[in-house]
């Protein structure tokens, strides 16, 4: 490597790099996430206090230099609870064979700065080294294990013809792809600034290939292949392939991001336009907001109901409507009150079906729809006769008992037809919660009134004939029989 390739920030650095050209023993820093490329600056956390102490001493007095060797850890199978993206830059050393898990070829790096160990939120943050990669090295032997020191030989690139047209074209394509990548992802600009600051030359194909590979998110195996490539044309070819793949990945990411942004922008634009349209219509008196329109609708319905509903019900409705006026439409209490008022106004206040208390008509209906069952028909006719004498059949209850299939349900429908009333049936077989009949508390989300209230709304009459079927199949629970 030349002094220019060493990339120091001063003449002192360049001279020191020349002095350490043939340094044979260095501290070895294992890396687990990605290799350090020559010409690249990387921060590496180090937990070995002995290495930090030794390197700190080497950097004093001021102006002195310290160097280390970085070696990528060989890939290993991760356990199910490990995430490759969360692995630390440095790994623990195997005391039995400290270099078995490291690649032979690494990077001879200069220590630019040491950050001491710190403590944040009760957690100790390890010391870190700011490293600048100088050149490729190959480890040949282990000198010591605590701290880990290895003997290395410094590697040179294979000789190549820098006037070769193919190599020139490859270099130009690498430069062009890097420009496109930087335009697509401005985060890479800082890395290029550091490359130029430390003496990087875009006409130096060897260094250009290294910095190009460092800009990608390729996996460890591909980056290590670039680091181990001493043949510069081959290294440039590998880097160009990685850069092209990275550019396609960035374009895909931008395409996905653009689609999401367009969808969000379209939805937001539609929302803002709808809000503006509502405001304009409200100002022109063409439309009122949802709350005002809803309350106005309830008020119109209330005027009709007020004439026929009992005084107690009218007072409750008035109170609930006043409450709605003071509540915010987005509050949960508003929705609860709205549901309650809707049910109150939906009930058939004052609506009754005219009763038909005609014994002959009742006899004809029963005989037309059921054969036999004389004792049952006589009891029903007796019920109609008593109702006619009293001019009312309100509050009467009949209990129909018999085995399945004898016509209990169907004859109840015939009774409703004979009396001229609306008919409603609901089954209580297997029912274990009395709230299904009585209704749920209003405080519950999605609370519904009981079956009897639902019946009145469904039939639209205040005097229907209601059949409660399968009473014998009522469930039982910890509250007792229901």
Care to give the gist of this entry?
By secondary structure, this protein is α+β, with helices and mostly antiparallel strands.
Task: Describe the structure in your own words.
- Strands 1-3-4-7-8 form a five-stranded mixed β-barrel. Strands 5-6 form a two-stranded antiparallel ribbon. Strands 9-10 form a two-stranded parallel sheet.
- It has four domains: 1-156, Archaeosine Trna-guanine Transglycosylase, Chain: A, domain 4 (Roll); 157-287, Methane Monooxygenase Hydroxylase, Chain G, domain 1 (Up-down Bundle); 290-346; 359-481, Rossmann fold (3-Layer(aba) Sandwich).
- A hairpin with a 2-residue loop joins strand 7 (127-145) and strand 8 (148-154).
- It has 16 helices and twelve strands.
- It is α+β, with helices and mostly antiparallel strands and 482 residues long.
- Helix content is 47%, strand content 16%.
- The protein has helices spanning 3-6, 11-19, 49-58, 165-184, 189-197, 205-214, 220-228, 232-284, 290-306, 311-326, 332-346, 359-369, 374-390, 408-419, 435-438, 451-459; strands at 25-31, 41-46, 67-72, 105-115, 118-120, 123-125, 127-145, 148-154, 423-427, 465-469, 476-477, 480-481.
């Amino acid at each position: 490597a030349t002094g220019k390739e060493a990339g120091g920030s001063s003449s002192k650095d360049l001279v020191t790099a020349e002095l350490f050209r043939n340094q044979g023993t260095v501290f070895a820093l294992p890396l687990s996430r990605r290799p350090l490329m020559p010409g690249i600056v990387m921060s590496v956390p180090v937990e070995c206090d002995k290495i930090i102490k030794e390197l700190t001493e080497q950097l004093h007095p001021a102006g002195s230099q310290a160097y280390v060797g970085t070696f990528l850890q060989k890939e290993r199978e991760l356990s199910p609870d490990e995430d490759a993206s969360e692995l630390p830059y440095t790994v623990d050393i195997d005391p039995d064979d400290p270099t078995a898990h490291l690649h032979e070829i690494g990077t001879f790096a200069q220590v630019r700065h040491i950050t001491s160990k710190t403590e944040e939120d009760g957690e100790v943050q390890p010391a870190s080294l700011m490293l600048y990669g100088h050149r490729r090295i190959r480890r040949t032997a282990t000198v010591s294990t605590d701290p880990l020191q290895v003997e290395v030989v410094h590697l040179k690139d294979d000789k190549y013809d820098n006037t070769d047209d193919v190599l020139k074209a490859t270099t130009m394509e690498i430069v062009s792809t890097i420009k496109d990548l930087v335009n697509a992802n401005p985060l890479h600009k800082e890395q290029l600034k550091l490359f130029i600051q430390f003496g990087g030359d875009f006409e130096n194909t060897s260094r250009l290939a290294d910095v190009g590979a460092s800009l990608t998110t390729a996996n460890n195996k591909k980056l290590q292949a670039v680091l181990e490539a001493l043949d510069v044309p081959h290294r440039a070819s590998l880097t160009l392939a990685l850069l092209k793949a990275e550019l396609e990945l960035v374009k895909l990411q931008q395409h996905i991001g653009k689609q999401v942004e367009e969808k969000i922008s379209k939805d937001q634009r539609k929302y803002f336009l709808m809000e503006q349209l509502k405001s304009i219509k409200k100002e022109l008196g063409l439309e009122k907001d949802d709350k005002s329109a809803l309350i106005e609708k309830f008020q119109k319905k209330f005027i009709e109901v007020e004439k026929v509903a009992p005084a107690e019900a009218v007072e409750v409705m008035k109170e609930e409507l006043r409450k709605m006026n003071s509540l915010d439409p987005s509050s949960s209490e508003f929705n609860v009150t709205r549901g309650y008022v809707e049910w109150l106004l939906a009930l058939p206040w004052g609506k009754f079906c005219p009763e038909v208390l005609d014994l002959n008509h009742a006899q004809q209906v029963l005989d037309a729809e059921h054969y036999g069952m004389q004792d049952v028909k006589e009891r029903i006719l007796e019920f109609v006769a008593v109702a006619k004498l009293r001019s009312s059949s309100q509050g009467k209850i009949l209990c129909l008992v018999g085995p399945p299939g004898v016509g209990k349900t169907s004859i109840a429908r015939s009774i409703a037809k004979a009396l001229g009333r609306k008919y409603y049936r609901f089954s209580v077989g297997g029912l274990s919660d009395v709230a299904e009949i009585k209704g749920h508390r209003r405080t519950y989300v999605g609370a519904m009134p009981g079956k009897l209230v639902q019946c009145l709304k469904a039939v639209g009459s205040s005097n229907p004939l209601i059949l409660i079927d399968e009473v014998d199949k009522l469930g039982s629970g910890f509250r007792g029989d229901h």
